[in-house]
Amino acid sequence: MKLSYDIEYLEELAKRVLKNTSTKIVCFYGSMGVGKTTLIRKLIQELEAIDIGNSPTFGIVNEYHDRKGEVLAYHFDFYRVESEEEALDLGLEDYFASNVWIFIEWPEKIANLLPPKHTSVKLHFIDETTRSIEF
After folding, report:
1. Is 41 within 8 Å of 52 (Cβ atoms)?
2. How far is CA 83 from CA 72, 78, 79, in A?
3. Residue environment code for 90-108, b if the CB has 16+ CB neighbours within 10 A, otherwise e
4. How far apart are CA 31 and CA 95, in angstroms?
5. Rounded to whole angstroms, how far apart are CA atoms 41 and 20?
6. In a 3-state reduction of DSSP, which class is residue 24?
């Protein structure tokens, strides 16, 4: 599916992404500032996490919980990761086996570690407030 969207309609877009992904492991591709974190924040809200989504750039991974306190999603940002071994040291394989939502920014940094079954979401700039998405 490919479509254009205005930033004002992120809630509707997040619902579409969640409804149309074939797996709970979702990889976000796009240049710096295109809105990967903003969309993931909206996805986390749509999943009704009690936490507010933030970029895990410095911590690499954020964990989000539901109202029962159970883990609902993990959000990875591999921008600062220097090697795939560094990602493995985080216990990435255990996260993948967790059967919760996993949102990954900069997945190209760990391409050889991604499970065969994952959903790719590609974001592109159109103009200041409009983006295109392909998933």
Report:
1. yes
2. 27, 10, 11
3. eebeebbeeebbbbbbbbe
4. 25
5. 18
6. coil
> Which residue type sits at 30?
G
The tens digit of pLDDT for each residue in 39-56 reads 999 999 999 999 776 665
Phi and psi at residue 15, to the nearest 5°:
-60, -45
**pTM flag (> 0.90):** yes
Residue 7 is predicted with a pLDDT of: 84
Q: What is the distance between the alpha carbons of residues 40 and 64, in angstroms, rounded to a whole number?
A: 12
Q: What is the gyration radius of the CA atoms in the chain, in angstroms? A: 14
DSSP letter, residue 29: E
Q: Where are the beta strands (DSSP E) in 42-118?
A: 61-65, 71-77, 101-105
From start to end of the chain, where are the E strands? 2-6, 25-29, 61-65, 71-77, 101-105, 119-125, 130-134
59, pLDDT greater than 90: no
